[in-house]
């Protein structure tokens, strides 16, 4: 009997999108990008930061800026301010971009493609 692979609802591919640190490097922030049929999904680990300490900005050319600013700079975990720029490979709709940060420091950003790019 041959085991079948689980079926994904939509085709997903992991992208090697360039991520650049602006300012001091923040190697502790891990970022992965996946492409689905209608959007990019960005997954980032931002441990030690609260929801209000993380900011996500996007622009139509496909640039996503993720930054973090801990309220306490002298925290015992060594969490420091950071700013990372993710260059996505196509135009996006910044007005429909949404982000969620969990209590465990997991950031999920849904970045829809620009409507003209889908057609």
TrEMBL record:
In alphabetical order, the GO MF annotations are:
DNA binding
UniProt keywords (A-Z) are: Nucleus, Transcription, Transcription regulation
Task: Give GO cellular component annotations, separated by semicolons.
Answer: nucleus
Q: Which GO terms describe its biological process?
A: regulation of transcription by RNA polymerase II
Specify the superkingdom. Answer: Eukaryota
Against Gene3D superfamilies, the record matches this protein to: 2.60.40.790
Extract the PROSITE patterns matched here: SHSP
- Identify the InterPro entries for this entry: A-crystallin/Hsp20_dom (IPR002068), ARI3A/B/C (IPR045147), HSP20-like_chaperone (IPR008978)
Tell me where in this chain the SHSP domain is found: 17-119
The family database entries (Pfam families) matched by this protein are listed as: HSP20
Asked whether the UniProt record includes Transport among its keywords, one would answer no
Listed PANTHER family: AT-RICH INTERACTIVE DOMAIN-CONTAINING PROTEIN ARID DOMAIN- CONTAINING PROTEIN DEAD RINGER PROTEIN B-CELL REGULATOR OF IGH TRANSCRIPTION BRIGHT, PROTEIN DEAD RINGER
Q: Which family does it belong to?
A: Belongs to the small heat shock protein (HSP20) family.
Q: What is this protein called?
A: SHSP domain-containing protein
Native source organism of the sequence: Ambrosia artemisiifolia
């Amino acid at each position: 009997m041959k085991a079948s692979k689980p079926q994904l609802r939509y085709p997903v591919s992991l992208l090697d999108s360039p991520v650049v640190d602006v300012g001091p490097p923040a190697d502790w922030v891990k970022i992965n990008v996946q492409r689905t049929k209608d959007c990019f999904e960005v997954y980032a680990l931002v441990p030690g930061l609260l929801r209000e300490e993380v900011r996500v900005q996007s622009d139509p050319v496909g640039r996503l800026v993720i930054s973090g600013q801990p309220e306490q700079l002298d925290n015992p975990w060594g969490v420091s301010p950071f700013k990372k720029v993710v260059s996505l490979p196509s135009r996006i709709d910044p007005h429909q971009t949404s982000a969620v940060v969990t209590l465990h420091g997991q950031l999920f950003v849904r970045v829809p493609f620009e409507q003209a790019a889908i057609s």
